[in-house]
Specification:
Ribosomal Protein S5, domain 2, four-stranded antiparallel sheet, GHMP_kinase_C_dom, 287 residues, EC 2.7.1.148, Alpha-Beta Plaits, ATP binding, isoprene biosynthesis, 33% helix, alpha+beta, binds adenosine-5'-triphosphate
Length: 287
C-alpha cells in the first residue's frame, strides 16, 4: 500500500515568550497558520518489520534523527502493527528555517500511518503522541490557524485569515534556537498584542493583521545574523504591508493582499538573494 501525504509549512503571525519553566521549556504564546509550501511524504508499507527513511536533500538526516522516522517509531512501538514502512521525503520546505519543516513531516507521518495501519486514533491523540517529538508537532497534526500556548501544545483554533499571499525569504544564515533563547531578556521586551492579532483575524482585517505581526525573537536573531534584519528592511523598502520573522528564523515573510503585490516584493528581493518563495496562505485545517 502506498500513500502520499502533504506536509505544509507554518508561519508565526505572532510569537511571544512568557516565562522559563522549571522543566527547562519556555511558555510561549503564538498565533500560527499554515502556508501552501509543503513537503510530500511518500509512505509505502513493508512486509518486513523495518522503518526506512530517504530524503531528497543530502543535509537532512535519513536515519533515526529524522522526525518523520521518530513519528513512525512511536506508533509502531505503541500499537500492535504488523510490518514496517518506507518513508520518502520530497522536501520543498527550507530546512532550519523557522517554518517547522521537520515537525510537519512528523505530523504527516502520524496522520498517514494512522490511516494505513488502521489505528483509529483521533487527531487529539496523534497530537499528544506528536508532542513527544517536538513542541510544534501538535499544531502541524491539525494545520489551520491557532493560538498556541504552553510549550506550543495548548491549541485554540481560530478562524482563518482572509485569503492572501506570503512572500518567504530564507537567507542561508544558520541560527540556533538555543542561542536565541539565551539572548532573550524576558523582563525587557516588547510583547506582541496577541489579542489584537486574534481580533484582526476574526474580523478578517488584513491591514490590522499586518500591523500586529510581531516576534520577540527578532532582536536576538538580528544580532546573531544581521543579514536577516537587512532582508526585513528591504521588504519594507519594497513596499511590504506587513513583515516579520517566523519562529526563531532566519526566514522573514511579508503578507501581500494580491499576487501582483507579492511578486513586486519577490522581484525586488530576487536581485539580492536566493531562497525567495511566493505562496498562498492556507489557514484552514487539514481535511
Ligand atoms: P521549527 O520552526 O519547528 O523551529 P525549523 O523549521 O527551524 O523548525 P527544521 O527544518 O524542522 O527546523 O530542522 C531542524 C533540524 O531538524 C535540522 O537540523 C534537521 O537536520 C533536523 N530534521 C530532522 N528531521 C527533519 C525533517 N524531516 N525535515 C527537516 N529537518 C529535519
Amino acid at each position: 500500500m502506498h500513500k502520499v501525504v502533504k506536509a505544509p509549512a507554518k508561519i508565526n503571525l505572532t510569537l511571544d515568550v512568557l516565562r522559563k519553566r522549571d522543566d527547562g521549556y519556555h511558555d510561549v504564546e503564538m498565533v500560527m497558520t499554515t502556508v501552501d509550501l509543503a513537503d510530500r511524504i511518500h509512505l509505502t508499507l513493508l512486509a518486513e518489520d523495518e522503518i526506512r527513511v530517504e530524503v531528497n536533500k543530502g543535509h537532512v538526516p535519513a536515519n533515526k534523527n529524522n522526525l518523520a522516522y521518530q513519528a513512525a517509531r512511536l506508533l509502531k512501538d505503541r500499537y500492535p502493527v504488523k510490518g514496517g514502512v518506507s518513508i520518502y521525503i520530497d522536501k520543498h520546505i527550507p530546512v532550519s528555517a523557522g517554518l517547522a519543516g521537520g515537525s510537519t513531516d512528523a505530523a504527516a507521518v502520524l496522520r498517514g500511518l494512522n490511516d494505513m495501519w488502521s489505528l483509529g486514533l483521533s487527531l487529539e491523540e496523534l497530537a499528544d503522541i506528536g508532542l513527544e517529538i517536538g513542541s510544534d508537532v501538535p499544531f502541524c497534526v491539525f494545520g489551520g490557524t491557532a493560538v498556541a500556548r504552553g510549550r506550543g501544545e495548548d491549541l485554540t483554533f481560530i478562524s482563518s485569515p482572509p485569503p492572501c499571499w506570503v512572500v518567504l525569504a530564507k537567507p542561508p544564515a544558520g541560527v540556533s534556537t538555543k542561542d536565541i533563547y539565551q539572548r532573550l531578556n524576558l523582563d525587557q521586551m516588547n510583547h506582541p498584542d496577541t489579542e489584537a492579532m486574534i481580533q484582526a483575524i476574526e474580523t478578517k482585517n488584513f491591514k490590522e493583521i499586518c500591523n500586529n505581526l510581531e516576534n520577540v525573537m527578532e532582536p536576538a536573531t538580528f544580532e546573531l545574523a544581521p543579514e536577516v534584519k537587512k532582508i526585513k528592511q528591504r521588504l519594507i523598502q519594497f513596499g511590504a504591508e506587513g513583515t516579520v520573522m517566523s519562529g526563531s528564523g532566519p526566514t522573514v515573510f511579508s503578507l501581500a493582499k494580491t499576487e501582483s503585490k507579492a511578486y513586486r516584493l519577490y522581484n525586488g528581493l530576487k536581485g539580492f538573494m536566493d531562497g525567495v518563495f511566493v505562496v498562498r496562505l492556507l489557514g484552514h485545517r487539514h481535511e
